[in-house]
Design brief:
The complex is a heterodimer. Chain A contains no helices and eleven strands. Chain A is an all-beta fold. In chain A, a hairpin with a 2-residue loop joins strand 7 and strand 8. Chain B has no helices and twelve strands. Classes of the chains: A mainly beta, B mainly beta.
């Protein structure tokens, strides 16, 4: 398995509180991604990064921000959590921009917003 | 924008039955195609991928998939399923240019009965 860890693995929080999820990789891969998984929707892209300090939005980015100050870490922040952000969050990584490059996924963070 | 459709949301089979899960995508350019599997409580793992060459690709655990360009399809098959194949299966696509993030189908939950 690719060296990807996510923390925390489980979190319960209240509406309106800020939450930060961390993704850490040991593969020195350039590309990192945050997805959320919801029943009936598969995985949907929140934000992605194509290098240190280089990030861009995905399809469901509203209410989320990201930061990447080091190659190995990609942080996802919910500035003010809402119940609609209850989900399982997966981080993924991939290598250089080439055909067939594969994304490898972390173990996920289950977030519950009450 | 690209999209992926998985027509079977929940499939129930008996052990030794054959499996075929449908996947259709919409994208005008060259694509990379993937099937991922998620066992209960685990992260996504790559089953197989197609990016060029032989349209029949073989993956891990006896799975294979066939890319039919004219039908925009990438169906997953296994001749004889086992109870341990019980999982959720996701088809995903990314284009050959631009953002490298994956677009996922909504997933197919496979339940194999002993």
């Amino acid at each position: 398995d690719a060296g990807i860890t996510q923390s925390p693995r489980h979190k319960v929080t209240e509406t309106g509180t800020p939450v930060t999820l961390r993704c850490h990789q040991t593969e020195n891969h350039r590309y990192m991604y945050w997805y959320r998984q919801d029943p009936g929707h598969g995985l949907r892209l929140i934000h992605y990064s194509y290098g240190v300090k280089d990030t861009d939005k995905g399809e469901v980015s509203d209410g989320y921000s990201v930061s990447r100050s080091k190659t190995e870490d990609f942080l996802l922040t919910l500035e003010s959590a809402t119940s609609s952000q209850t989900s399982v969050y997966f981080c993924a990584i991939s290598g250089e921009f080439q055909r067939g490059d594969t994304q490898y996924f972390g173990p996920g963070t289950r977030l519950t917003v009450l | 924008a690209q999209s992926v459709s998985q027509h079977n949301h929940h499939v129930i089979l008996s052990e030794a039955a054959s499996l075929e899960l449908g996947c259709n995508y919409s994208y005008g350019g060259t694509v990379n195609l993937f099937w991922y599997v998620q066992y209960p409580g685990q992260h996504l793992q790559l089953l197989l991928k197609y990016f060029s060459g032989d349209p029949l690709v073989k993956g891990i655990k006896g799975f294979e998939a066939e890319f039919i360009k004219s039908k925009f399809s990438f169906n997953l098959r296994k001749p004889s399923v086992q109870w341990s194949d019980t999982a959720e299966y996701f088809c995903a696509v990314n284009g050959n240019t631009g953002r490298r993030a994956l677009t996922f189908g909504s997933g197919t939950r496979l339940q194999v009965q002993p």
